[in-house]
Amino acid sequence: MSDTSLTIRRFSDLANPSRFLALSARLLPWLCCLTALLFAVGLFFAVTSAGDYQQGETVRIMYVHVPSAWLAMMIYGVMSVSALGTLVWRHPLADVAARAAMPIGAAFTGLALVTGSLWGKPMWGAWWVWDARLTSFFILFLMYAGLIALNRALEDPARAARLSAILILLGFVNIPIIKFSVDWWNTLHQPASVLRLGGSAIDAEFLRPLLLMAAAFTCLFFCLHLAAMRNEILRRRVAVLRRQSARSAALNGPAA
Amino acid sequence: MRRLFLRDLALAFRAGGGGLTGLLFFLAVVAIVPFGIGPDLKLLARIGPSILWIGALLAALLGLDRLFQAEREDGTLDLLLMQETPLVLIVLVKCLAHWAASGLTLALSVPFLGLLLNLDAPAIGATMLTLACGTPALTLIGAGAAAVTVALPRGGLLVSVLVLPLAIPVLIFGVSATQGALEAPASFLPPFLILLALNLLFAVLGPLAAAAALRSLED
Does the keyword Plastid apply (chain A) (predicted)? Predict the structure, then answer.
């Protein structure tokens, strides 16, 4: 591909991100306010709700732990959709979305692991158990970390986008396999014991703050994601401008 | 196709090829384990199959980064990309050759290493069988990661980081099939069949991903 057609394509790609920047600039303050409101209400309910009769106060860890775990999985879903967008429709914003979501997803996965560990110590008496769910989450964290490492190793954003999209989709197909295999691996070694925290039989007293916190976390993710995407777009624009100025300097240099 | 297979195989075993180095690495890993956990023969016999599986996993990872890199360096990859034969098939054949040079030789070396770990004959047989049937999946998963990192100057470490999480199911079912063959309550056939199913699945997914990644290097 020649240089001119490359720059033309870059400019036509910028048309859409500009609209995205304008839209997100209008949307972001409202979303931030909504997040703050949800967090205020959710935290109020979380703090004032009764402690569990068996687990005492530690049950409140759930209000951070469960939403971040849900989000960690949802973010991988967002990344997979973005990867499809990159590979199939070549949407210019899709790879920005995937790239911006990676560190956030890794952070939420890490948060779920850390809070789970903090919760596990008083409840199970151990920081870490090789339980199926813990293990599969740990693997998810490793996959996020691998994707970030790959993205950092590649310099050209377009190439990084396509390669990481391929890897995201490969991982997406693998996640159910890992999940089920780890489940089975666990039951082979130790019979079902841990992680029985009510499930659907959860009381409304706990469910209300949990759902509020889940909504708050989801809004938080969208805030962070939008902000990260804006940053990524601006960062790429700066890079393109720098390259252009360098090129024009190189072109004008011999003439001057 | 057959030519390509034989060529890759020959390259792997000639000087500078990765085939024998992988085997040596496997030997070294297995030899190191008794130093780490002590020379208790009973314990070694119990965890021996798992040690062999982990060693094989690491040894299979070792040579993966060279799967496409040498071809890229001397330009053969460009020729392969220009062929009329679908790239997916070429990748599949290259994977088969790589497996024959790594996974198959590892599986064949199990009887010798099993003696070092105090395994009895059924355990050696079960480990050989599961390794021979499980390592193709490792190579096929690795092909995707190797193709993704082929353009990187130091892709080797990254390949391992990317492949290991994806290879965990293979390890789980490989080890549980081996255990199932040896101990009465656990069953052998279901994990073994799932292992074979994983092979088939990755025989489709791995080359597809690798071919897509290699194509995306082009433009």
Answer: no
